[in-house]
Amino acid sequence: MNASRTARERVRAELTREITDVARRQLGEVGAPALSLRAVAREMGMVSSAVYRYFPSRDDLLTALIIDGYNAVGVAVEQADAACARDDVPGRWLAACRGIRGWALAHPHEYALVYGSPVPGYRAPEQTIEPASRVAAVLGAIVSDACAAGAVDDVGASPPASFGPDAARLRETVLPGVPDGVVARSLTAWASIVGLVSFELFGQFENVITDRDAFFDHAALSLAGLIGLQVDPAPRARI
Amino acid sequence: MNASRTARERVRAELTREITDVARRQLGEVGAPALSLRAVAREMGMVSSAVYRYFPSRDDLLTALIIDGYNAVGVAVEQADAACARDDVPGRWLAACRGIRGWALAHPHEYALVYGSPVPGYRAPEQTIEPASRVAAVLGAIVSDACAAGAVDDVGASPPASFGPDAARLRETVLPGVPDGVVARSLTAWASIVGLVSFELFGQFENVITDRDAFFDHAALSLAGLIGLQVDPAPRARI
DNA sequence: TGTACATCAGTGAACGCGCGTTCACTGATGTAC
DNA sequence: TGTACATCAGTGAACGCGCGTTCACTGATGTAC
Question: Which of A140, B3, B70, B188 has the most beta carbons within 10 angstroms of its beta carbon?
Answer without folding.
Answer: B188
